[in-house]
Amino acid sequence: MTPKESTTARGRNGEHRAAQFLRQHGYTILAQNFRSRTGEVDIIAGTEFVTAFVEVKSWRTVPMDALEYSIGGAKRNRLVQTARYFLREFPEYRERTLRFDVIFVSTGDGTIRHFEGAFEASCPE
């Protein structure tokens, strides 16, 4: 990130890089910045068998061992509520394995870390 790059621009860049990463690993991007009244999911991606709700974090100085804990309970709840809304709107994705992932994109060296199943939640209502 350049000194003048905003947090919003850094986030958009991270989401773009995360989407590219997912495509390179066989995922189809189903939605980006999917919003409901309860929250937003950065990326919803799928394979033939999986629907992944992905939170993207761009960081510069967070220690690697702290990354897995960067999504708090309130954020997790908003992600789950928004995933439920998505599945009501697009029920064809309910039969796949549902997963909540986190992708961290380093704004320094470009490292991308993908935590599949970063947390568990019951999604269908």
Rg (C-alpha, Å): 14 Å
Which structural class fits the helix and strand makeup?
alpha+beta
Here the CATH topology equals: Trna Endonuclease, Chain: A, domain 1
In angstroms, what separates the terminal alpha carbons? 40 Å
Question: What is the CATH domain class?
Answer: Alpha Beta
Helix content: 25-40%
**CATH architecture descriptor text:** 3-Layer(aba) Sandwich
SSE pattern: HEEEHEE
Question: Reading side by side through the largest sheet, how are the strands ordered?
Answer: 1-2-3-4-5
Beta fraction: 35-45%
Report the strand count: 5
Main sheet attributes: strand count, strand direction, barrel closure = 5 strands, mixed
Average pLDDT over all residues: 85
The low-confidence runs, each spanning 5 or more residues with pLDDT under 50, are none
Overall number of domains: 1
> Looking at the structure, what is the overall shape?
globular
Figure out the total of helices: 2
Structural summary, described in words:
It is a single chain. The protein is α+β, with helices and mostly antiparallel strands. The chain has helices at residues 7-24, 73-89, and strands spanning 28-36, 39-46, 50-59, 97-106, 112-119. The chain has a 5-stranded mixed sheet. The chain is globular, with a radius of gyration of 14 Å. The model has no long low-confidence stretch (mean pLDDT 85).
Chain-wise SSE layout:
Blueprint: H1 7-24, E1 28-36, E2 39-46, E3 50-59, H2 73-89, E4 97-106, E5 112-119
Parallel strand pairs: 3-4
Antiparallel strand pairs: 1-2, 2-3, 4-5
